[in-house]
Specification:
The protein is of the alpha+beta class. It is 32% helix and 15% strand. It is built from 13 helices and 12 strands. The strands form 3 sheets. Strands 1, 2, 3, 4, 10, 11 and 12 form a 7-stranded antiparallel beta sheet that branches. Helix 1 packs antiparallel against helix 13, helix 2 packs parallel to helix 5 and helix 4 crosses helix 5. The two termini are 34 Å apart.
């Protein structure tokens, strides 16, 4: 891949972030990408480069949004937590208090905290669901309410890769009367370039996701240092699960199926799946974390409680060690953070390598969006190197 000129602005004190970003293009690890960093309320990095659409050669621009996969979960969780903060429900109270139909097949004791921390035991749908069906959040929530859990809620955690959105999102839909995307835009993201359910003009100018060509390793290159990475036995279990079409991992990741065009499918992009359906610019997602870390969306006490790890250890879906608060990932192999941020960083990664991160103690907010797909399950090394550089610049 030819070396690509990186555009945008970067504070000289954060030149190391630009250096890493440019090196990724020079090493052939990117097609198109963007990264944005805030130090407090000051935007210190806003960079982009490369090709937004490999087929047409269209360039990535300042306002190019990209599909962010599971980075969406952090916004859905924030919407649910904002309603809890306003007294709409009790996070640690039973789901049946506001969703009576959920109390079937031994799920009566499920709490909202279980929904928000991947403990609900509903990591996958029991039947194949199409992209068209997935555009109806009420119908998918009803299906999950009627479904038998794969483990007793609260007795273990497993990544709810897609079902999370229709579980945690039902908190928002039932208690605000609005779909997640509408609530997010109206309550705390109105001035940001992010959409959970994108309009057609946003889809039209968006980056197109591209699978890596044979022999190309977008997550490779120079190794990430000082990052929690899975051990050999964990990687072996992950590879075995990924190769098994009937594994919980595959059932969770691939149903609903996005249909023709994969996650470039406009049906998916318009629907705004609340677990993996956001289109955003890097500056837009970093702006969300800036406001969240600064206490402008949730009260600081609410955020501190939300990022407190509720689960940490073997994940029943991903077969790796994962850690979650109430919707936010905490540092573990799928969410790699250098030592400087390991006690206080939170956020969420997405398939393909995208990531959003906030750190209220450090005053840091960062977002990275690539359209060349890497391996997001074990934490993308490109993202880690950018995060590592940002923390080093703060220091």
């Amino acid at each position: 891949m030819a070396q690509t000129a990186v555009q945008g602005q970067c504070d000289p004190a954060f030149a190391a972030v630009r250096d890493v970003f440019e090196r990724h293009f020079a090493d052939g690890l990117e097609l198109g990408a963007a990264v944005a960093v805030y130090a407090g309320d000051r935007k210190v990095v806003d960079l982009w480069g490369g090709v937004a659409d490999r087929r047409t050669g269209r360039e990535w621009r300042a306002d190019t949004p990209c599909f962010a996969f599971s980075c969406t979960k952090a916004l859905t969780a924030t919407a649910a937590l904002l309603l809890a903060e306003r007294g709409a429900y009790d996070v640690d109270g039973p789901v049946t208090a506001w969703w009576p139909e959920f109390g079937t097949h031994g799920k009566e004791g499920t709490t909202a905290a279980h929904l928000l921390s991947h403990q609900a035991g509903l990591p996958a749908f029991a039947r194949p669901v199409s992209a068209e069906e997935a555009a109806d959040p009420a119908a998918l929530a009803a299906e999950l309410a009627a479904q038998e859990p794969e483990w007793t809620p609260g007795e273990g955690h497993g990544y709810h890769a897609l079902t999370y959105g229709w579980l945690a999102g039902e908190i928002v839909r039932r208690l605000s009367g609005r779909p997640v995307g509408t609530f997010v835009k109206e309550e705390f993201a109105g001035d940001l370039d992010l959409w959970i359910g994108a309009p057609d003009d946003v889809i039209e100018r968006g980056a197109k996701l591209t699978a890596a060509r044979r022999g190309q390793a977008p997550d490779g290159g120079r190794p990430a240092q000082d990052a929690p990475v899975p051990d050999a036995s964990s990687l072996e279990r992950l590879a075995k699960a990924a190769a098994d079409p009937g594994s919980r991992l595959n059932r969770a990741l691939n149903n609903p199926h996005p249909g023709k065009g994969g996650f470039n499918n406009p049906v998916v992009l318009r629907a705004g799946w609340p677990g993996a359906g956001m289109m955003t610019t890097a500056a837009g997602m970093a702006g969300f974390y800036r406001d969240l870390a600064a206490g402008r969306i949730l009260r600081p006490a609410t955020l501190r409680e939300a990022i407190r790890p509720r689960v940490h250890g073997p994940d029943r879906t991903m077969v790796l060690e994962t850690a979650f608060g109430l919707g936010y990932m905490r540092p573990a192999s799928p969410f790699r953070v250098p030592a400087a941020g390991r006690a206080s960083a939170f956020g969420h990664g997405g398939a393909g390598g995208s990531i959003g991160l906030g750190d209220a103690e450090a005053g840091l907010a960062l977002a990275y969006l690539p359209n060349l797909m890497g391996d997001g399950l074990t934490g993308d090394a490109r993202a880690f190197r950018l995060i590592e550089a940002a923390y080093a610049c703060l220091a």
